[in-house]
């Protein structure tokens, strides 16, 4: 997160397709929620916008929040693949670390 803030944030707010600068994949929605809560704490008072997506809940609600801007996406594998395949999340510009 610090690197993202230092190097500058990119992304388009209120876009149907979001291109997060970083994606954190978690194996369960419980772990995804824990990581997201920590990301919210670290990003408080900054321009960085974390987002979350996981299965078992409304797709529409999650997409609505992500479409408002998402620099860091915390996701479970299944829902992330769903969003990528349906062209809601663009991973073309991600750098693997």
The computed structural class is alpha/beta
Question: Which of globular, elongated, flat, extended, rod-shaped describes the shape?
Answer: globular
* Total count of strands: 3
Strand content bin: 5-15%
Number of helices: 4
Helices and strands, in order, run as HEHEHEH
Q: Mean pLDDT, as a whole number?
A: 85
| Main beta sheet | 3 strands, parallel
Low-pLDDT windows of residues? none
Helix content: 25-40%
Question: Which sequence of strands runs across the widest sheet?
Answer: 1-3-2
Q: How much is the radius of gyration in Å? A: 12 Å
Distance between the termini: 13 Å
Textual characterization of the structure:
This protein is α/β, with parallel strands linked by helices and 97 residues long. The protein is built from 4 helices and 3 strands; from the N terminus they run H-E-H-E-H-E-H. The protein has helices at 2-7, 29-43, 59-66, 77-85; strands at residues 22-25, 50-53, 72-75. It has a 3-stranded parallel sheet. Helix 3 (59-66) links the parallel strand 2 and strand 3 (72-75). It starts with a helix and ends in a 12-residue tail after the last helix. The model has no long low-confidence stretch (mean pLDDT 85).
Outline the fold blueprint.
Blueprint: H1 2-7, E1 22-25, H2 29-43, E2 50-53, H3 59-66, E3 72-75, H4 77-85
Parallel strand pairs: 1-3, 2-3
Based on the model shown, name its key terms.
3-stranded parallel β-sheet, 4 helices, 97 residues, alpha/beta, 39% helix
């Amino acid at each position: 997160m610090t690197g993202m803030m230092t190097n500058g944030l990119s992304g388009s707010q209120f876009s149907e397709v979001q291109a997060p600068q970083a994606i954190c994949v978690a194996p369960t929605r419980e772990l995804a929620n824990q990581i997201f809560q920590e990301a919210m704490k670290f990003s408080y008072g900054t321009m960085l916008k974390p987002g979350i997506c996981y299965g078992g809940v409304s797709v529409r609600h999650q997409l609505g929040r992500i479409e408002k801007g998402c620099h860091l996406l915390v996701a479970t594998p299944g829902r992330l693949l769903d969003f990528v395949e349906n062209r809601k999340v663009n991973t073309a510009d991600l750098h693997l670390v």
